[in-house]
């Protein structure tokens, strides 16, 4: 199950700095570990997270091995106008997850 | 001269001096547990809520928010004369759910979540099992010849390598453990400790683990449940 959770304030004042928290359920297998039989466990990680605000990209992160499972990524942006934030995670083995959140700017 | 020594040495921890593992954690780890929206255990809670409907739990028990309130604080308990823990009771109609499977942990976390903040209350009728668990807790075992009590009763608060030794109150199971990078049961935590002292491991649901779990819950009686907790 590709579970993702985002936390965006439902409402903000124009020009206010808002905090956005994102959580993605993912094992983030590094590709360096071995099984008890000595076989290498193939890498399986999220490669990137992109956030767009009414279509414009406002945040992008590249993820790498050695990042913890279920990565929590927090960032801030300026609330400019009401609309939609879209989050897209992509990764190895065709992993893809999207989530949207609405924000009302007053 | 002896009067100045702490009363806690070599013996059960006085009720007023008991502290949840939460109080031994760093500020950052506490923040992870307190984050109700993007805390790591939320991923399991969401799955558990979905499974509650999908597996049909809802058809007998209704909304877990009402029917499961306080339930986790009473387990392990006697069911038809047999000692069962919360996981076993959760899978009573879904025996296909394996111990330590993501599904069983998620469902157990969802049930336990409804008892957050409720004090642990163990039925006194389980006394013979509590006594057996206490004996296990005080029995030296493994190649290191250590008893649980030597760390968790006599030396809590001190360091074992870089880690603070907690008092071993199971107030938050199933837990999201940073070391595991996932959610795990109390039985898994037991296996960690037993591996550490190089002792014999028991299977989840074995009488030894059930009695130990019961004793620890009884030992933590009156303390508030925090499930699903985060631990380092």
Descriptive keywords:
heterodimer; A: 106 residues; mainly beta; Immunoglobulin-like; five-stranded mixed beta sheet; three-stranded antiparallel beta sheet; 52% strand; B: 232 residues; mainly alpha; Cytochrome Bc1 Complex, Chain D, domain 2; three-stranded mixed beta sheet; two-stranded antiparallel ribbon; 10 helices; 38% helix; 8% strand; globular; disordered N terminus
Description:
The complex is a heterodimer of chains A (106) and B (232). With 106 residues, chain A is mainly beta. Chain A is 0% helix and 52% strand. Chain A has a 5-stranded mixed beta sheet with strand order 2-8-7-4-5, with no helix packed on it. A 3-stranded antiparallel beta sheet of chain A has the order 1-3-6, with no helix packed on it. Chain A starts with a strand and ends with a strand. By secondary structure, chain B is mainly alpha-helical. The termini of chain B are far apart. In chain B, the strands form 3 sheets. Chain B has a 3-stranded mixed beta sheet with strand order 6-5-7. Chain B has a two-stranded antiparallel ribbon with strand order 1-2. At the A-B interface, strand 1 and strand 3 of A face helix 2 of B.
Question: Which helices and strands appear, and what pairs or packs with what?
Answer:
The complex is a heterodimer of chains A (106) and B (232).
Chain A lengths: L3 E4 L3 E2 L4 E8 L21 E8 L2 E7 L9 E7 L4 E9 L4 E10 L1
Parallel strand pairs in A: 2-8
Antiparallel strand pairs in A: 1-3, 3-6, 4-5, 4-7, 7-8
Chain B lengths: L26 H8 L7 H13 L2 H5 L2 H4 L9 E3 L2 E3 L1 H5 L11 H12 L13 H12 L9 H5 L6 E2 L2 E2 L10 E3 L4 E3 L1 H11 L10 H13 L10 E2 L1
Parallel strand pairs in B: 5-7
Antiparallel strand pairs in B: 1-2, 3-4, 5-6
